[in-house]
Amino acid sequence: MALKVGQKAPEFQLPDTENNMVSLQDNLPCIVYFYPKDFTPGCTEEACSFRDNHQVFSNLDIKVFGISKDSISSHRKFKEKHQLPFKLLSDREGKVCKDYKALMPIIGVPKRITYLIDKEKTIRATYSDMFGATNHIKSMINQLKAE
Fold first, then answer.
1. Which of 58, 68, 101, 135 has its CA 20 to 30 A from that of 48?
2. Residues near 9 by Cβ (< 8 Å), separated by ≥ 6?
3. What is d(CA 84, CA 43) in angstroms, rounded to the nearest whole number?
4. Residue of 1, 41, 3 whose CA lies nearest to 117
5. Is 43 labeled as catalytic in the residue annotation?
6. Which domains does the chain have, with CATH numbers?
7. Which of 99-103, 110-114, 129-133, 134-138 has the lowest mean pLDDT?
């Protein structure tokens, strides 16, 4: 079960593909989406969907971050191959995935969950669906249109 709308988003600091530390607090408002694995079909479809609609968020000054347990090196290759205009963050230990209720029990793989977080670190929207990769972007755009 994902974190709930209205809850405060847990703070985090994770490395990006350039090995720079990225914190939630310094990047609000934002969309944070968790995904299982670089280069898998569903995760590629989801990342490319965020890429293709990135201008919508950029125009609203909303940053986008993808988080998985993949290595920085894997993220770098994935980002370059698909020309992703947003940062991918590496949560090797899975702590941030766990804090955001985005870690599958027992197998320890991140779930596909997306959060819209406002300037006050409050979760404004959440969408969780392991198989509807492109529905994550549609849900976030619909939420922004409604606000």
1. 101
2. 3, 24, 32, 100, 115, 117, 121, 122, 123
3. 12
4. 3
5. yes
6. 13-146 (3.40.30.10)
7. 129-133
Band (130; pLDDT cuts 50, 70, 90): low
Helix (H, G, I), strand (E, B) or coil at 90: strand
Which of 80, 128, 73 has the alpha carbon at shortest distance from 102? 128
Instruction: Tell me the mean pLDDT in the region 32-41.
Output: 96
Catalytic residue among 30, 43, 48, 97: 43
Whole-number pLDDT of residue 88: 98
Residue 51 tokens read as 């890429």
Neighbouring C-beta atoms of residue 78, cutoff 10 Å: 22
Task: Extract the tokens encoding 87.
Answer: 């940062």
